[in-house]
Amino acid sequence: MLGREMSENLEQELELDCMGALCPAPIIQLGKAIKTLSAGGTILLRADDPATESDIAAWARLTGNSVATLEKYVYRITKR
Amino acid sequence: MVTADAFDGERPLHPAGAKVLLAAFEQGWASPNGGSQASAQARHLLAAAREEIAAGLGVSADEVEFWGEPALISPIAIMGAPNFSVGKFVVGATERQEILAVGAKARAMATIPVSVDGILNRDQLLEEIESNSIVAIQSANGETGVRQDISDLSGLVGALNAHLHLDFTASGPLIKLPSYWSTADFPAKSWSGPAGLGIMLINREHRWANPLAAATSASTKRAPGSFSLPLVLAAAASLTGWLQDTSKESARIRALITLMRTVIKQTITDVDLAGSGAANESLPHILSASILNISGEELVNALSREGFAVASGSACVASAIEPSHVLKAMGLLTHGNMRISLMHGVQESEVKRFLALLPGIVERLRLDAGA
Fold it and tell me: Can you give the pLDDT at residue B33?
């Protein structure tokens, strides 16, 4: 769906590729993915939709999770 | 009977203005610049309309200029400030794009951030203003209804005698001019007047020159003189009627918006309501809500099918690529956004029907999106 790929590395980090997906798909995919994690689990999200940069911060505020921007279009999300 | 338009931002022409407009077009007014008796009558009507509008806005008639190109008023007013070519242009991050775009022409520009409630950062504004600055402040934001304390902010600008342009596009005369101002922008639509006419106010005690003066044939050179007289007459009649209606309707409409904010917060999870909603920080009639995990376009369409016309500042609508710079500057969700602007005459029963339907619509859209 929308080029989404999810994989799991040794540190239990999910990778979520939403490059090319338009708003609000990246945030919806992120919300679904985070439900599969336990507290402290992380997701590496790649998303280039112009709305994601601001929406991901608002999503974190609303849901209580934390987000760090690693580089342009790349975010690490930690489940609370 | 309340139509869907009662929830939309597009205000219909006030009935008093519509009556005058029809009569004016039927009688075919002459140009006020001619020498005939008909032109003399047109001049008399124009002067009377100017007086009526000046009184409604709380200024002198000689401070009122009519423009047939409302979207140009703020950019021209700002570029006509005496220090525009040498001073710093200071503007809020949530200002209209037409005004932010003027920054490209300025020698320097400072964009003042806003809080999550949309209020301008006062300290940073104070830090950026210099005596030769050109400062543009909006009385309120049209997307979110967030209202600035222009009385306080104008005092800061006035203490340095900098040029202050005030944008009243969203509030119209719901918010009064403060004691210090240089120029101001009032589209006639802001009081349910006709589209295609705007009012530029130029403070008689401040210096200002039309940057397009060479291109205008009007005698004063302060405006192009390209406005339509019937629109001016309709604008004056609309303003008088709208001010009377507002005095009766504002409190009732604010109570409806407060009810909407409360119920939406209670019935929908993960929603960002723009602004604090406090009376001194918001317009009485505007509500902006961004709902997590749904598309703004789908929300607007679903509400439209139920008879409610609302707007959206989301990027996920067909007409937009970039998300709303206003929501972004406030740090709010930019998707799933709806903007409601309640019109005079809106019925409480319609608001309650909207509030009863909304949770089900949101739940269905979230399910459809797989959220």
Answer: 76
**C-alpha–C-alpha distance, residues B69 and A5, integer Å:** 51
Chain B residues bordering chain A (beta-carbon distance below 8 Å) = 270, 272, 290, 292-295, 314-316, 321-323, 327-328, 331-336, 369-371
Distance CA B314, CA B327 (A): 9
Q: How confident is the model at residue A2 (pLDDT cuts 50, 70, 90)?
A: very low
- What type of residue is B362? V
Give chain A's contact residues with B (Cβ, < 8 Å). 22-24, 27-28, 31-32, 49-51, 54-55, 57-59, 61-63
Residue ranges, comma separated, of all CATH 3.90.1150.10 domains in chain B are: 4-9+249-369
pLDDT band, very low/low/confident/very high, at B318 (cuts 50, 70, 90): low
Token reading at B22:
């029809």
> What stretch(es) of chain B map to CATH 3.40.640.10?
15-240
Is residue B273 left, alpha or beta, with left meaning phi > 0 and alpha meaning psi from -120 to 50?
beta
Cβ-contact B83, B134 below 8 angstroms: yes
Contacts of A28 in chain B (CB under 8 A): 293, 369-371
Q: Which CATH superfamily does the domain covering B4-9+249-369 fall into?
A: Aspartate Aminotransferase, domain 1 (3.90.1150.10)
Catalytic residue among A19, A23, A44, A74: A23
Output the 3-class SS for B175-229: CCCCCCCCEEEEEHHHHCCCCCCEEEEECCCCCCCCCCHHHCCCCCCCCCCCCCH
The owner of tokens 């004691």 is B179
Q: Contact, B261 vs B282, CB < 8 A?
A: no
| Least CB–CB distance from B315: residue in A50, A57, A58 | A50
DSSP string over A32-68: HHHTTSPTT-EEEEE---TTHHHHHHHHHHHH--EEE
**Residues facing B137 on adjacent strands:** B166
The CATH architecture to which B15-240 belongs is 3-Layer(aba) Sandwich (3.40)
Q: What angle do CA B318, B172, B146 make, to 5 degrees?
A: 60
Tens digits of per-residue pLDDT, B98-130?
Answer: 999 999 999 999 999 999 999 999 999 999 999
In a mutational test of the B interface, the residue from A23, A35, A52, A65 whose CB has the highest number of chain B CBs within 10 Å is A23
